[in-house]
Amino acid sequence: MNALVTGGGGFLGLEIVRRLRARGDTVTVLARGDYPELATLGARLVRGDVADAAAVLAAAAGADIVFHVAAKAGVWGKQADFERSNVTGTENVLFACRAHGIPRLVYTSSPSVVFDGTDHIDVSEVPYPTRYENHYAETKARAEKLVLAANGPALATIALRPHLIWGPRDPHILPRLFARARAGRLRIVGTGTNQVSVTYVDNGAAAHLQAADALSPGAPCAGRAYFVNDPVAVSVWPWLNALFGRLGIAPVTRRVSVGVARAVGVVAEAVWSLFGLAGDPPMTRFVAAQLGTSHSYDVGPAVRDFGYTPEVGPEEALDRTAAWWKDHLPPA
Fold first, then answer.
1. Is 136 an active-site residue?
2. pTM beyond 0.90
3. Total domains in the fold of the chain
4. Catalytic entry in 35, 107, 136, 200
């Protein structure tokens, strides 16, 4: 298989590349940065941005499948930046697939595309909400719809929705949580009993390869979106405190109501917007809702339609993650 992986130098993308190379597939990565590990793995790096149609078209030449992982993630930022990466970038990938006659596209989406601020408990089908509270979720939803609408006899497409990808080398979620917990700035939002699906990075990557192998025009999984998290949801705050405890970080015990957190988010968003402050606000409406509600998802359809099989169980995932971060946690 000759695969193009957009964003193949990132957290999830690199694990997908590693697995593709381990089984002998040829891999080209389109990424903006330089990632020495890609060369070590034997992948070809093409420097470029998914928002650059010419760069995507050049990188896709010779591919017979595309894993479109690249995206602008985050809870805050300019709409134009999210639109450029997530919507325009996806349009460019679809154009390249059609131009080169590439028959398969695996798109990395997110459960954020269906998050409406309410509890989602072990669901497999959720409609898109009528409104979104951040640009990331809105632009990822638009991109997902483009990908699914493009499915047909010449191009089979599938969208995967891993939720809260975590593990060793995580550059996004865990470092921020560790820093806030150590500084005493992390609070349990709501009752602390909410159930949340998480995705160990190895399992998320495995889902992408399993979906790719099952994908073809007319396949049961073609033209559909799937949740591909770890099968058993976690009680998020005891789960985090268990990880903190293994790293010598004091458990989080102080609480704040969802209403208070949301009010703080409203004020913080207004201040950041008014003064154009750099970085993310300490709280947003979206984050308050995410932290205070249950959002767990049923992977049954993914198991049924393309044989999704997580490779790493919850205890082993926690052990691996704690062991890696013990050696890489910055000094307090």
1. yes
2. yes
3. 1
4. 136
